[in-house]
Amino acid sequence: MDRSQHRAAYWRTNLRVIAGCLAIWAFVSLGLGILLVEPLNAIRIGGYGLGFWFAQQGSLYTFIVLIFFYAWRMNRLDREHGVDEQ
Amino acid sequence: MNADLQTLSLAVVGATFVLYIAIAIWARAGSTSEFYVAGKGVHPIANGMATAADWMSAASFISMAGLIAFLGYSGGAYLMGWTGGYVLMALLLAPYLRKFGRYTVPEFIGDRYYSKAARVVAVLCLLAMSITYVIGQMRGVGIAFSNILQVDLAVGLVSGMVVVFAYAVFGGMKGITYTQIAQYVIMIFAYTVPAVFISLQLTGHVLPQVGLGGSIDDGRFLLEALDRTLRELGFAAYTEVGAGMTQLNMFLLTISLMIGTAGLPHVIVRFFTVPRIRDARQSAGWALVFICVLYTTAPALGAMSMWNLLKTVQPGEVGTLDGNLAYADKPEWMERWEQTGLLAFEDRNEDGRLQYYNDADPEFAAMAEREYGWAGNELVRLDRDIVVLATPEIAGLPDWVIALVAAGGIAAALSTAAGLLLAISSAISHDLLKGTFTPRITQKQELLAARISMAGAIVLAGYLGWNPPGFAAEVVALAFGLAAATLFPALMMGIFFPRINRAGAIAGMLAGLTATVLYFVTYKGWFFFPQTALLPDTAEYWLFGINPTGFGVIGASLNFAVAALVSRFTAPPPAAIRELVESVRVPRAD
């Protein structure tokens, strides 16, 4: 692969990872926390309805995991494509 | 307030001030790079902590738990919105802007769209947002001094300004970063200690995040008990969906706050300070960890304080004769907070007891009058800020905890104010003077200009904190709307869509700006004078029922659409710009 193909492949993979992460991001907060809150509230964890828990706790934890996952995945991708910082 | 408590509080606040100034002397900035981006040498975890302090303002510390306490479930919009923006920032902006490797956010917009006009538009958006935001911080310093410490507002404001001056003017981003780390520690300690105590008292759980889902001493779950008592008093249940705002508006507000958060220049610029691209990616994660310590505690603190308040006012069954608190038995904290004006009572039915219920619901008010002999809600003023400010006293915590809350509130306000002031001063000295109007000035002159504009901004902020415009809260909502509708789309398109050109970007920003301002003005009035509003600010008049505070996402969509359309019909950007886009996309060019 020449340089520009390499870069295009790197960027395509990056876009795929971003799309996946943002899909989870939107699904958990806007989906589970808002749109599906009522059916989910039928499931209880302790005093929490599950939908309420996602709106006030769960989404926030998910966001943290997503950012660290993305950082880890991209650092690996940088190395695979030889564009990591030395 | 007793004299001992006041002395103790002042001593604690004074000690934190000495600490900030000591850091300022240690971390003096010698170059423009140190002044604007701390020499790009900040460790990602340290930067995460500083970002968290920068981001969490007086409003996060003092007002957010109260906001959630009164909104219940819908308050989740603020929790998810203000944290979800970091995901957008980490995935779509931070690493690429760090690779770009300059000092300010407008600088990227100016270079990417090869246009000084675009840079100036970005500076104007930045100044409008940052100045309105800084007013709220100076108010926060004022509230902490006058309500908690009972020191004159002017004394509080001036001492706050002097301290910020010391570390922001001399230290620049370097001084600000290291004081913010200290401020984060103070702030988070001050926030979580009362929350842990109150959670232990009510639910027996150390972690408030677990306690919120736990049960209280009569075996019921806290949230169930809260729902029931609120309903009995005619309010919506705490966990009720659609009570605080409609689901549509909660949805739009959440996305708008997310996009707005990702577009706030004073936060984005923090990711310019780390040494490498990989650090920028990771640092956003650390920032969110440190933010979430407070943001996951806030809803628990809100619900628990609400429960404590209800149990104080309504110790017995609703509607029974001795179910309500007798005025004669009012706890000491109520009297103290009555003096600050944040709490006010009026015995309307003259039964010597305090009733707190929803008299705005005519059906419930009529029933309460008929059945219980209640003549209206007697807690005539109940400021939301009480929830955090009075928590230590309501829970009967020791004096040093009360002193800590004052120091924490001030730390939250100062750390955010410093970050905003840096964004303001670098926009003036770097983007307007060096970048646009007087490009020939030397580094030394630029540094001096940065310090002078910082000093000017501090004086302006202090003045606005002393004479706050009455519309401060609404302007902050507008600031988020503007960040979402102008800067975020311009930055994101600059990285992800190489075909977007100068004309497209400027047209997009102006479209987002105009639409957002017009929608606000229609319901809130010109310059926020309500009498100049064109339509009443109520749900039946809102376009498709959209609350102006949730309009940011619409403005952002408009910006994207207009930029794409205009770019399609105008000449593509020059080859050099395509190369610039290519180069920010990879951490290392080979």
Strand order of the largest sheet of chain B: 1-3
What's the arrangement of strands in the largest beta sheet of chain A? Answer: 1-2
Q: Provide the succession of SSEs of chain B.
A: HHHHHHHHHHHHHEHEEHEHHHHHHHH
User: What is the CA-CA span between the terminal residues of chain A?
Assistant: 22 Å
Taking pLDDT < 50 over at least 5 consecutive residues as the criterion, the unreliable ranges of chain B are none
Name the CATH architecture of the largest domain in chain B: Up-down Bundle
Biggest interface and which pair forms it?
A: A-B, 47 and 52 residues
C-alpha-based Rg of chain A, rounded: 18 Å
What oligomerization state is this entry in? heterodimer
Task: Sketch the major β-sheet of chain A.
Answer: 2 strands, antiparallel
Q: Give the proportion of residues in helices of chain B.
A: 55-70%
Structural class of chain A: mainly alpha
Order of helices and strands of chain A: HHEEH
Shape of chain B: globular
CATH class of the largest domain in chain B: Mainly Alpha
How many angstroms separate the termini of chain B? 66 Å
Tally of separate domains of chain B: 2
Q: What is the SS-derived class of chain B?
A: mainly alpha
CATH topology of the largest domain in chain B: Sodium/glucose cotransporter
Structure description:
The complex is a heterodimer of chains A (86) and B (590). Chain A is mainly α. Chain A has one domain (3-80). In chain A, 80% of the residues lie in helices and 5% in strands. Chain A has a two-stranded antiparallel ribbon with strand order 1-2. Chain B is mostly helical and 590 residues long. Chain B has two domains: 3-302 and 393-471, Sodium/glucose cotransporter (Up-down Bundle); 309-391, no CATH class. Chain B has 23 helices and four strands. Chain B has helices spanning 3-26, 32-37, 44-55, 58-71, 76-100, 105-112, 116-148, 153-203, 208-211, 222-232, 247-262, 265-268, 277-313, 332-340, 362-372, 386-389, 391-394, 399-437, 443-466, 472-496, 502-524, 552-568, 575-585, and strands at 325-326, 343-344, 353-354, 381-382. The radius of gyration of chain B is 25 Å and the shape is globular. At the A-B interface, helix 1, helix 2, strand 2 and helix 3 of A face helix 5, helix 10, helix 11 and helix 13 of B.
